[in-house]
Amino acid sequence: MNKAIKFGGSSVANSEQFKKVKQIVLADPGRKYVVTSACGKSGQEDHKVTDLLYLCAAHINYGVSYDSIFQTIVDKYMEIKQTLGLTVDLAAEFAKIRQNLSRDFSLDYLVSRGEYLTGLCLAEYLDADFLDASRVIRFHYDGTVDLKKCQELLKAQVDPGRRVVIPGFYGSLPNGVIKVMSRGGSDITGSIVANAFDVEVYENWTDVSGFYVADPRLIKNPVQIPRITYSELRQMSYMGANVLHDDAVFPVRQKNIPINVRNTNHPQNPGTMIMNDCRDLDEQDPPHVITGITGKEDFTVITMVKSHVSAEAGFLRKALAVFEKFQISIESVPVTVDTFSIVVQSKKIERYLYEIVAELKKDLHLDDIQVESHLAMLAVVGRAMKQMPGMSGKILSTLGDQQINIRTINQACDEQSIVIGVDNRDLVEAIKAIYQQFISEERVER
């Protein structure tokens, strides 16, 4: 079974973490395609290499010496080299980076060097081939990944008989100029590699043992999710459950390749399996009725009041056109016979709020318009909810018992998610109440 595996920054933070990575990789001959992030933090007083590289760039732009910051990066990699007995010529690599910084430097080139240097060290330590991501991860000029070209380049340059290490987070434009992805982009590199080689599973190793039903910072020892569908993951990630980069899903979902999120520090934990379809496994081991509970604060609700608005053709189009003019995406659109509400993220609308309200009044001839901020959106996600009659009512009743006022509610037609608007101040208590009612009590029953 061939596998693509990606190690996050915490997994390669120092020489001790490198040793754990080697044990994991060598424990399974199928772990052939290794993608690595840059060295992360090894403690509270430490810093991520990528953060330090961005800081170097800021110093250069302001004409301030970056020597001490750069030396911190050098020391970090030299500790890894010396402790592990590596022979890679890091001195030459750092000299080359400094030389490039003495001219008009590229920010993308600079911040990509963390993954590049980590990949060089890890490849030697694993006795694997090193393949620079700039040679095989290709972007279009608009910044989107050219997946077809990536497949061609990877297949042409990877020796099928050897293990290979590829740095994550960056690639190159068609003209060869290095380009980086958004932060966390190594997840995307791993999924591109998994797609190219049609692996049976993509293992994503990080510092948590997969996904949990609720945020461990809010719920003590929450239940771990053994498996989750891509659809459920997307809904949870959108509402704040960030373990995996959102864009990492698409290349593997395209080929129905499962993602296994694992913990480098607890490799015996099976983690969470992300799959297209969990039905066969669910028949053997029924899931909790709720897969996950998550939420985000700071939304704004604009409510338009007009008699018989639901019967007025074109009203929705006119209202949405105002938001489109200001390039603002819509979260939810609750409608009643005389009211029409639009929910948006507060940070996206705050600069244009007065202009938008004015245009809505002018274009739609409203009886009234109301704006409310400080709203949180709570998402309850679960593929098993549609098999539980009255689930929405039970959730609302649970919140009512805790004196939590419900501002909006939206249930997906597939019945996999229910999104509820509450005041910001009530979000944490709402999550705790739902977890206690539907997870803790179900856990006891089991």
Automatic annotation (TrEMBL):
It is an enzyme of class 2 (transferase). The keyword Nucleotide-binding applies. It catalyses: L-aspartate + ATP = 4-phospho-L-aspartate + ADP. Pathway: Amino-acid biosynthesis; L-threonine biosynthesis; L-threonine from L-aspartate: step 1/5; Amino-acid biosynthesis; L-lysine biosynthesis via DAP pathway; (S)-tetrahydrodipicolinate from L-aspartate: step 1/4; Amino-acid biosynthesis; L-methionine biosynthesis via de novo pathway; L-homoserine from L-aspartate: step 1/3. Keywords: Amino-acid biosynthesis, ATP-binding, Diaminopimelate biosynthesis, Kinase, Lysine biosynthesis, Nucleotide-binding, Transferase. InterPro entries: AceGlu_kinase-like_sf, ACT-like_dom_sf, ACT_Aspartokinase, ACT_dom, AKIII_YclM_N, Asp/Glu/Uridylate_kinase, Asp_kin_monofn, Asp_kinase. PROSITE patterns: ACT. Catalyzes the phosphorylation of the beta-carboxyl group of aspartic acid with ATP to yield 4-phospho-L-aspartate, which is involved in the branched biosynthetic pathway leading to the biosynthesis of amino acids threonine, isoleucine and methionine. Belongs to the aspartokinase family. This is Aspartokinase.
